[in-house]
Amino acid sequence: MKQKLNANHLKLIAIIAMTIDHAADLIFPGFPSHPVALVLHTVGRLTAPIMWFFVCEGFHYTRNLPNYLLRMGIFAVVSHFAYCFAFGIEYLPFSDGILNQTSVMWPLFWAVVALWALNRAQLKDWQQWGFLILINLITFPADWSSIAVMAIVFMYSHRGDLKKQTLAMMFWVCVYAVVSYFCVNRIYGLLQLGVILVYPVLRQYNGEKGKASWMKWFFYLYYPAHLILVGILRLALYGDIPLLF
Fold first, then answer.
1. pLDDT at res. 217
2. How far, CA to CA in Å, does 184 sit from each of 127, 181, 188, 195?
3. Mean pLDDT of the region 9-22
């Protein structure tokens, strides 16, 4: 079967799935067991693994790692304020809890740092482990927590073998699902397993970037922009109350 999806197609799928997921947060706050909410959030599970996959690809192909890290770092900071505004979370981390204190862009940035430490920095084993433990602590409070970092690290180690990448990813997603099930929300925990639906989508990736070069920047702009819109609608519909849990 000829693979039909390039990087732009997959990023567009991630954007659509993310928008559906966050619309569900807005329409059905607090992860109720409403069937429509469950379906919408299941579709939303496509977003994170596509992001993780392209962090691996981006790190592999980048010709200027410092610029890539700078871009990801700025993106993570901007997205923090948009994410907190969208879901009614205090801008200062740990003011109202220890989980979901910032967006998934924070662990994505630190995942690139982890990939550098493990693959290019020529560090000793104990230094690599030290870096990885520290990065896990730094990213723990974020959306998808340090699981995003570990999923990316293990996916990169199997780059070029989608089946092994998917198995590695699902191991860490299962860890996240179990913790979420017992410590956060049972429905939310079970929903994370919907990430597996990304496998047939990624199988269609043909390894090409696509002709629309603006798509890379569109995603950087769309992520915080749509979160700001979610925040405006949250205030209009519910007032200044949080949407998550």
1. 86
2. 33, 6, 8, 18
3. 97
